[in-house]
Amino acid sequence: MASTQTWDPQTYARNARFVSELAGAVVELLAPQAGERILDLGCGDGVLTATLAALGCEMVGVDASAAQVGAARALGLDAREMGGERLDFDAEFDAVFSNAALHWMKHDPDAVIAGVRRALRPGGRFVAEMGGYGCVAKIKAALLAALARRGIDGEALDPWYFPTVEDYCARLRASGFRVESAALIARPTQLPGDISDWLATFAQCFTAALVSEQRPAFIAEVQAALKPQLCDAQQRWWADYVRLRFRAIKAG
Ligand code: BEZ
Q: Which ligand 1 atom is at minimum distance from the Cα of 101?
């Protein structure tokens, strides 16, 4: 599933720059201090990682996408190709930070959390924002309905993990974290373009079920279904994002 999602740094910069631009609240929750060594888990093209480095933090970024790691390195960052379920660090970070990445790590969230814990020094913090329960529910429903009309079970293709507060906090506690705060936040997010650009950037796991000739009609159908729900009178498109934002401390 995850292998059908690819990241092209140029497309990402054009269609998804809002992801790093809207990270102010989670960066505030992180409260980064100059001199701290911080791991950015799922650093993408490194634009946000570089912002933290500019505050004087010693940043290491990891991402599963070689292309995005290349873009992050081009910014002069220490970026490494590493999946979140295979973190290979031992008690070397003051904090692990993650923005808009954990929901792509659906296969084994407990392995991700265990790797984060291992990576932290005693008392270190894990501060993150990810898609939370109900995130892009309208977009997903339109995708699933259009796939169902073609006899395809879209649920089986869904690459996203959007947990409830209770689910994720239970996993954090079971792994040895003390949760300081955790909340679901509805955050309708204005898109830089049309929903079709968002789908091309983020919904490849669904469109990959179709041969390329079928995709334009499929996208047009999903777009038409979503227009009354997500496009306003000024023709601005909004994604129905829900964020899960939390701060947890490595206990014991
Ligand atoms: C995000 O990057 O925040 C996101 C991506 C896909 C679906 C929902 C949210």
A: 2
